[in-house]
Write a structure and sequence with these properties.
Shape of chain A: elongated
Largest interface: A-B, 94 and 78 residues
Helix content of chain A: 25-40%
Oligomer: heterodimer
Order of helices and strands of chain B: EEEEEHEHEHEHEEEEHEEEH
Radius of gyration of chain B: 21 Å
Helix content of chain B: 25-40%
Radius of gyration of chain A: 22 Å
Strand content of chain B: 25-35%
Largest sheet of chain A: 9 strands, mixed
Number of strands of chain A: 18
Amino acid sequence: MADSVPQIPGRVVAVAEHREGVVSPVTWELVSCGRQLAQTQGLEFCLLVLEGQNQNLGLEAAQYCGERVIAVKVPGLETFHGEAQRLILGDVLATMGAMAVIGAHTTSGMEWAPGLAVSLSAVFIAGVEACESAEGQVTLVRACHHGKLWEKLRPIAERLVLSVQPGAFEAAVPAKDSTPVLEVIEKEYPTCRTEVEPPFTMVKHDAALGRAQVIVAAGRGVGGPANIALLRELAALFANSALAGSRPVCDYGWLGFQKQVGLTGATVSPRLYIACGISGAPQHIIGMRGADVIVSINSDPEAPIHKISDVAVIEDLTTFIKAFMKLTVE
Amino acid sequence: MFMRILVMIKQVCEPQSLFELADGRIVLSPATRFQLNTYDEYALEAALSLASGAQGEVTALTIGPANAQAVLTRAAGMGAKKCVHLLWEAEAPPSPIQVAALAADWIPGQEFELILTGVMSQDSMNGAVGPMLAALLDLPLATSVVELEAGPGAQGIRAVREMEGGHRQFIKLPTPCLLTIQSSVNQPRYPTLSNLLRAKANPPQVIEASSRNLPPSEVLHLGADFPESSRAGLVLPGSTEEKAAALLRFLQERAFL
């Protein structure tokens, strides 16, 4: 094991996420984004895994994706600690010649990525959904205004730190016959001012959400708890159905947090998802884009949910559902 | 026990605003209404409840054009004692690093024990200003905070961070520190008339942003677009009843009903 950092000029580095000793699936999406960026820029790509002394996540990642992986082993860093991660990355990457650093646009990634950009004097671009390239120039696409608009940005700095929206890039497939390369470097746990405890499970998702063939989901547009009852009736029309909600609906207490679908809630993939009064912010779409059929009902014709639905109904929710229920009774 | 808290707030257009594009530039209709960024409202509420327990004082800071002063009035109405407006007159809005740098340029000497921001702004959705400001000021940071309280003997802050998929994490920070506040942390209070009247007598301190040190944005905005449909996106035509009938047929054809 070497303590020195391998010197390769101009690398694209993705930073793995893991929890409870398992590499998080979003890591393979970061690998896809990183490969793409590295290819278009003619740079090398590698995956960085920060892990505890006795973890083997770096090796597992290298065997899975067949990429060059650098495992940074830090005694005590079995679980996520934002401050420690930022300090170690700052230390390792500054000497590594990283041109682009890719993290996930998750609560973990956002704890270190913007601050790392400051310490590396890099430009930071958040929530990247796509990466385009023309004539050697990189264009990054990201959502803004609740996903109603996408903006295209071009970084004009020497170094770049990105946070990539989960679900935006296809996950890298397992490698078949490439030779994984693993390098291991060791670092001390840095002196930190914050103290963290291992993550705990706060909200157990309603198991019915995972089993349901049909999910009727309520968004801010339902207007109030009274209309939740209406959606419950709508859900009851379908066999094997469940009621779910977006984050605002759970924040307001109209539905329990165990019913929340999205980045900070459950990820579901039913046969049919009926989005009622849901605008379709990226944080919600991440949790339901895998549904076979999506129906969106929203009075706002510009609501981004209509862009990912198979059938869009632009109508007042209450009026429409009442009309729909009336027809089914007839 | 005296807690001086700064809350960074931002004016955003209402989520239901309609947008037009002209040569890839986002154009807001003249009828667009603006509001205080919802996440900043949660941050203000968190600051006001912490300060009231500690006989503290909340300052609200915004960086934006002249009409953004409305969010400071709202903050004052909610109970912020001091309001500061870093007036940004350039046409292009400041980038996250520019906002963080302007704040980092003004904050030293103010002796804040705690700085709060919303977890992100509803319009640009970066979530970067808080973490960047913490890095510039070298302050301990916690993002996506859903619970917070002063530590025992008012030493530091104990907070709970939200993570993906229903997970959370306890974090302890010494003060001064910076937290970004996620929604659901509390129920933001409404402005009161007495606070609003007091605010009228004490207008915000206005500082020209152009007079401060400002880093370049280092990002070129190449333009905006409406997202492309990733599925069929069949918009049902007709009256309410016709749409209901069409949806029923669609679902029956696929054996959902």
